[in-house]
Every structure is written in structure tokens, then in C-alpha cells.
Fold this protein.
Amino acid sequence: KELLIDFREIIGEHSGVNLAEAVWHTLEPYGLKSQVMAIVCDNASKSDTLLQALREKCADEEINFSTKHSHIHCLPHIVHLA
């Protein structure tokens, strides 16, 4: 079963840091901050920045989050770029 928990307008630049803020503010009300196992992203550099910013937020709250193990690259983006 799938459930959309948020659809949020990004105010300002669509940078990795701003995207991380949006993700964090979506996870907070549902108590999901420590439940994230992976994030599916394209190969844009802002995706790396997003994951790094999330790792820092998790570290501030002593939540284990690895950017290396939590980044899943979107296969259709990879195939399309190849």
C-alpha cells in the first residue's frame, strides 16, 4: 500500500540544503526521522548535498544515517543518461 504524506512547495532555490529542510519538516510530524532507510535520487549534485544535509541533521539528533548506504540512484535516470 502506498501513501503520500506530503506535497510541499519549495520556496527559494531548489538546492540540496533547501530540499533537505523540506524532507526533514515532512518527517518530523510523523515521527519518521529515525526510520529513513534510503532515499531515491537522480544523479544531480544537489542530491549529494541533500543527503549530506540530512546526515548532519540526523547526527545532531544522534540518529544513525549513512549517506553512502542510504543513497539509491534512480535507474531510469541512469539508463536515460547512458
